[in-house]
Amino acid sequence: MMKRNTILHFTFYIIPLTFVLSFLSCSDDKEDAYPSLITEMVMAKANAEGKMASFTTDDGTTYLVDNTISGMTANDCLRCLCTYLMETAGHVKVYRAEAVPILWDYTNVSTMKRDPTGIQSAWLSGGYINLHLTPKTQGGKQSWGFTRDSVTQNALGGSTYHLSLYHDQRDDFAAYSTDLFACISLDSIPQAPATLSTLDSIRLTVQTFTASPFKQAWKVHSSVDS
After folding, report:
1. Distances (CA, A) of 130 to 66, 74, 121, 157
2. How far, in Å, CA of 22 to CA of 109, rounded?
3. pLDDT tens digits along 25-42
4. In the Cβ-directed half-sphere of 163, how many Cα atoms lie within 13 Å?
5. Strands 201-206 and 159-168
6. 116, 164 in Cβ contact below 8 A?
7. Residue 195 binned pLDDT confidence (cut-offs 50, 70, 90)
8. Whose CA is closest to 39, among 100, 96, 82?
9. How far apart are CA 184 and CA 163, in angstroms?
């Protein structure tokens, strides 16, 4: 499996499609008007020229990219939300690739910020907790991360890691909602071993605009340990 991305993004401007490597293209061929596109989280690998050479999906499958997608750092590895079309065996055409920030551990910061945000979904795959957030913004800068609140023993005899989303709205006025994808690497959870046990679990809490926070839990499977 491709080595996990270790780049940490923690404070950035909220702009729809934060960093887009390639826009969806159109074709004059009627047969290509509605191609069978796949959209999922991947780990993208750049070549020496900073162009996407390949990517690995969260189930461990690696594909070579046939078209030119530029905008990456040479030989870098980047978490992306990728839209692509299967071509020949092991080869794909990428239509869109949006960089997904990996959130910083804010457990030891002096001031905890848990400003509310919207959230569409959260899921565990590829060694990451993936988040589809819908924050409110006016295009300003906000800070994002996560905290490890506690570690408890679960009924299976493993450890449960209780996490919360760190969010500082700062001076960004909550004018309208936008989409933001982000993720938490399981490698970066404080006090967690390098390889989590299948007896372990994770619980995430996100403060929302409603009275009740968003809460979700996952059991750790062997597929996310590698």
Report:
1. 27, 25, 8, 26
2. 36
3. 344 444 556 578 999 999
4. 29
5. parallel
6. no
7. confident
8. 82
9. 10
Half-sphere exposure of 107 (CA within 13 A, CB side): 13
- Look-up: residue for tokens 């007896």? 199
The torsion of the CA quartet 115, 116, 121, 122, rounded to 10 degrees, works out to: 30
- What is the gyration radius of the CA atoms in the chain, in angstroms? 18
Sorted by where each starts, the structural domains of the chain and their CATH numbers stand as 19-99 (2.40.50.500), 104-224 (2.60.40.2370)
Give the Cα separation of 65 and 93 in Å (integer): 6
The half-sphere exposure of 60 on its side-chain side, counting CA atoms within 13 A, is 6
Q: Which of 117, 78, 76, 122 is nearest to 97 (CA)?
A: 78
Hunting for tokens 């990517």 — which residue is that?
55
Q: For residue 63, what pLDDT band results from cuts at 50, 70 and 90?
A: very high
Which residues face 43 on adjacent strands?
Answer: 56, 79
pTM, whole model, 2 decimals? 0.83
